[in-house]
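queue> pop job 88
queue> type: inverse folding (structure -> sequence)
queue> payload:
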């Protein structure tokens, strides 16, 4: 359990296990917020940020579950934005979930996601799958469907044999269902997070498939917009990626973050509290972002 005082959370366990990036059924995860917190506790996670895509809808359930299972919950969200025609994701950590302007902007993001879902369905109309938005929404548990949910709906309707085939033919990069142009500029999203008292963190930088030079440009622009953190360790990256991002984080003077980007159980490469098939842990030379929350997270005696 975590003892609270107005200045800091101190964990009375031998080690911190901090996971600052995961998803529930409030966006495109398959576990409910309560199930997610229970699994995090089983995996030894001490601090968890729920960072659903463009929504805070799962936080209330997650907060109650966190109290029940002894995990400290950190308010979070993963916001979509645009940078030089790329869709970029920025994680907002420790945001105030009662900030009215921020909540209004999140609502607009949700409306953008619904508009995107309807456009995906329109572009796939030639497949003649009836009620495709409704089918995809059902796959998303009633939340706004993303491309994985459309893939599952196409499989269920018999239009494709597998989600992989759905992406290869209809939903992947450059295909008709690859709809990306609904997001605000990077600098706007960073400003929203800062105004809500949060810490903007550039999510999973190596997943954007950019050259090193272009990624450095992105990080520079992100920092100049007010961005404060870089997700250095996450699932789906190599030791070389970790080394590159750690060096970039240190050179730019950014705070380092880590997170599993967990969406569903059963994937050995992506489990709560883990990244790259091992426990989440930042290189010692980096400054952890969690030391800069409004209630900083510190190791006992730290």
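queue> result:
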């Amino acid at each position: 359990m975590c003892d609270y005082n107005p200045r800091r959370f101190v964990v009375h366990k031998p080690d911190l296990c901090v996971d600052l990036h995961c998803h529930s059924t409030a966006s495109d995860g398959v576990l409910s917020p309560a199930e997610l917190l229970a699994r995090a506790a089983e995996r030894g996670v001490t601090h968890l940020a729920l960072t659903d895509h463009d929504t805070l809808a799962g936080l209330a359930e997650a907060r109650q579950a966190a109290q029940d299972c002894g995990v400290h919950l950190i308010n979070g969200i993963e916001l979509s934005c645009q940078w030089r025609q790329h869709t970029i994701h920025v994680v907002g950590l420790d945001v105030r979930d009662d900030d009215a302007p921020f909540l209004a902007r999140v609502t607009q993001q949700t409306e953008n996601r619904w508009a995107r879902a309807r456009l995906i369905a329109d572009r796939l109309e030639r497949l003649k799958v009836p009620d495709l938005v409704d089918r995809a929404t059902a796959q998303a548990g009633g939340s706004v469907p993303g491309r994985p949910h459309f893939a599952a709906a196409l499989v269920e309707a018999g239009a494709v044999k597998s989600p992989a085939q759905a992406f290869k033919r209809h939903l992947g990069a450059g295909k008709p269902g690859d709809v990306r142009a609904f997001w605000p500029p990077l600098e706007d999203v960073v400003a929203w997070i800062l105004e809500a008292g949060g810490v903007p963190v550039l999510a999973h930088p190596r997943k954007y498939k950019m050259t090193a030079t272009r990624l450095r440009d992105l990080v520079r622009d992100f920092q100049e917009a007010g961005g404060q953190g870089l997700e250095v360790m996450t699932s789906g990256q190599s030791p070389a990626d970790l080394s590159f991002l750690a060096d970039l984080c240190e050179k730019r003077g950014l705070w380092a973050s880590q997170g599993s980007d967990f969406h569903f159980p059963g994937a050995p490469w992506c489990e709560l509290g883990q990244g790259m098939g091992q426990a989440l842990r930042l290189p010692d030379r980096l400054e952890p972002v969690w030391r800069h929350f409004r209630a900083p997270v510190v190791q006992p005696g730290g």
